[in-house]
Structure formats: C-alpha cells, structure tokens
Design goal:
Helix content: 40-55%
Number of domains: 1
Oligomer: single chain
Largest sheet: 8 strands, parallel
Distance between the termini: 49 Å
CATH architecture: Alpha-Beta Barrel
Structural class: alpha/beta
Strand content: 5-15%
Radius of gyration: 19 Å
Number of helices: 17
Order of helices and strands: HHEHHHHEHHEHEHEHEHEHHEHHH
CATH topology: TIM Barrel
Length: 373
C-alpha cells in the first residue's frame, strides 16, 4: 500500500520497474562497503570446488544460507556477523583474494557507482592461510587499481580494524595503511561487535593515524547506543560514523554531529537484518534528515544482504517516503564527505552536480573535518 501511495505522488514513475531504471541510471557514491561482504556466490562455489574446501555441497543455493541473510532468518546483529566467519574460509590463495577484490569493483561499477570507498580487514583476508597483512593489502591495492582502469569507477580503500583485535594488531594495521597511502589507501575504520568491545582502547592508534594524514571512520551507534558515537568522535577522532542511526536517541550527540559536520554512513537493509530497526518504515533516516544531519546511503555488505545501492535507494523511497531530490542531496553529501584531498573532492562534486542535474548544496550545518586538526 505504501509503495502505491508513494508512486502515486510521483506520476513519472509509472511502475516500480520504471523507478528502478531511473535510480539505476543515477551516478552513485558508496562510502560504506566491505570487501568481505561483497563475494559472489558463484565465485564462492568455484573457489570451494577448486581448492577442496570441505562443504556438504557446492551448490549456490546451499551456500546462500551461510553467506547471505535469507528471508526466514530472524534479524540479529550477532547472526549477521557470523556470516563473515564462514566467508573467511574462501580466501584460500592470492588469486582468490584478487578475484574477490576485482569482482567487488566490477559489481559496483555495474550498479553505476562512480566513486566508492571499499574497506577491508587485512586480518580477515590473511588469517586462515597465514598470509602476511602486508601481502594481502598489496594484493587488494594492486587488483583494485587494475579494476578501476577496466571499469568506469574511482575506488579508494579503507583498512579496517576489528574491535576484538589486540591494540598491537591495530597498530600494525594502521602502520600498513600509512605505508599504502600512495596505493589508494585513504583511511582507517573500526568495526565489529560494539556491544562487547569498547572503542576507547584504540584511541591512541586512531589519533596517531589521523595526525599522520589518514581519514577516520568508526562503526558506532548501530547495535550499541548513541554514547558509542560520542566516544568515536571525541576519543578516536572519527570524521564519519559507520551507521550511527542510534545517534537520534541522544540530542547532545545529534548536536555534536551537526556542529562538527560529521556524516553518517547509513545502510538501511543491513540495519533491518541486524535488528537495529524492526521495519523499514520505522527507520530513523527521514528523522535524521529532518534534524539537518549529514546523511549518506550505502550498501554495507551487498552479498550478505543481497542488495545493491539501487535497491537501497528504492527502499528509502518506497518504504520511508524519501524523495528523489533528497537522494540526490545525499549523493552530493557523500561526495562532500569522501576521504579525498579537497581539490579532488571539489572536482568530483562539480562532476556530480552536473551529472545529477541539480545545483542543490550538499553542505549541512558545520564544516566537514579535514584530516589534520
């Protein structure tokens, strides 16, 4: 019923398929996409067969239940994270890691994403086979560089630290991120179970990385509350927040985000599957926009969630009442919040404004934070 109401208010969209075509044609930005959540099921099946991974079946539909959130699963944050334990089994060789990285970029380009920041955890790619963190980082960087040349897309990389890792491992990942800045690495991320592992113990690692020129994003305010967002900003120096939808529970945190101009990397389908929201129509995205916060729409883990960025745009329009103009503003917000040097960001912004056919400013209240205070 809600779909019909929204479509009725926009007569140019005669059908949902017509809307999908229009949204697919939009040039897009994805700031929050995990490499480890971007594996094709067909590739998993081929890797498993070729390398003899012990599975009861190599059938794609069998693998789907372990790698993807299926319709009969109850929404749960920890069940969602458990998918990644299964996916780690498939980083069997350098060739497998490179294939997965290449296909992640190709799939994004096929969805008309023009700029993407792809994040990955070197530990996740290396631990099963005992690869070095430096080696897997080099493989991903080199492969993504080639994929950009083959497809019409610009990709920057963010190295991710798991909240359950030691500070020593976190420091090592941060050092590697700094070493690979000339190879497309622009930032550092903290992710994982925020309900069990506080961010504060990594404060020194992230503060140092930011002083040295890396951009900082932190998963917070998803399974955990708004205070985790405050901690990410004040202690780790986060310039963007991964998810952050529970910021709305605390007016002081909302004020903090607004005055500092910190963007939220919102991933609607993921938020439903992790149980952060019960129904799409209950998602706080429209309220976050109404509060004048800087909001972007992203995929999170397109394979795990069985989604594309076009799907995410469809969801927010049909289930949340977000308008096409608001989507365009959020695309421009994503450009303005991207982890690039100011001159590159401004050039990309001019291109997107022309491509989107709008002059609407993406800037919200408060200046965006640059790398060095």
């Amino acid at each position: 019923m809600r779909d019909n109401v929204i479509l009725a208010t926009q007569p140019q969209h005669e059908t949902a398929w017509g809307l999908r075509d229009q949204l697919h044609a939009l040039p897009k930005v994805d700031l929050h996409r995990h490499l480890e959540g971007s594996l094709r099921l067909s590739t998993l099946s081929e890797i498993a067969q070729h390398h003899g991974i012990d599975l009861p079946s190599y059938d794609i539909e069998y693998l789907r239940r372990f790698a993807t959130v299926v319709t009969d699963e109850r929404p749960d944050f920890h069940l969602f994270l458990a998918k990644f334990s299964f996916l780690r089994r498939f980083y069997t060789t350098q060739a497998a890691v490179e294939r997965i990285a290449y296909e992640a970029v190709a799939d994004a380009a096929a969805d008309n994403i023009k700029y993407m920041e792809l994040r990955f955890n070197p530990v996740a790619l290396s631990r099963t086979q005992g690869f070095s963190l430096d080696s897997v980082t080099r493989w991903v960087c080199d492969t993504v560089a080639q994929a950009q040349r083959d497809h019409d897309i610009t990709v920057r990389l963010i190295l991710q630290i798991g909240r359950d890792e030691s500070v020593e491992t976190a420091s090592q990942i941060a050092r590697i991120a700094l070493d690979y800045r000339a190879h497309g690495v622009v930032g550092l991320d903290l992710a994982g179970d925020e309900t069990r592992f506080p961010a504060r113990r990594f404060a020194e690692v992230f503060q140092h990385a930011r002083r040295e020129g890396l951009y900082i994003t932190v998963h917070a305010g998803e399974a955990g509350g708004a205070e985790n967002v405050r901690e990410a900003v004040e202690l780790l120096g986060a310039q963007r927040i991964g998810h952050g939808v529970r910021s709305i529970e605390n007016s002081d945190v909302v004020h903090l985000l607004r005055t500092k101009g910190i963007a939220l990397e919102v991933c609607p389908t993921s938020n439903l599957q992790t149980g952060v929201v019960r129904q799409f129509w209950q998602h706080p995205l429209p309220d976050l926009l109404a509060l004048d916060l800087r909001v972007t729409i992203n995929t999170d883990d397109p394979s795990v969630s069985d989604t594309t960025l076009t799907d995410e745009y469809m969801t927010v329009m049909l289930a949340m009442g977000v308008t096409l103009e608001q989507i365009k503003v959020m695309i421009l917000t994503a450009v303005d919040s991207s982890f690039q040097p100011p001159e590159e960001r401004e050039k990309l912004s001019r291109w997107f404004r022309e491509a989107l056919g709008c002059n609407t400013s993406s800037r919200k209240r408060g200046e965006r934070n640059e790398t060095v205070d």
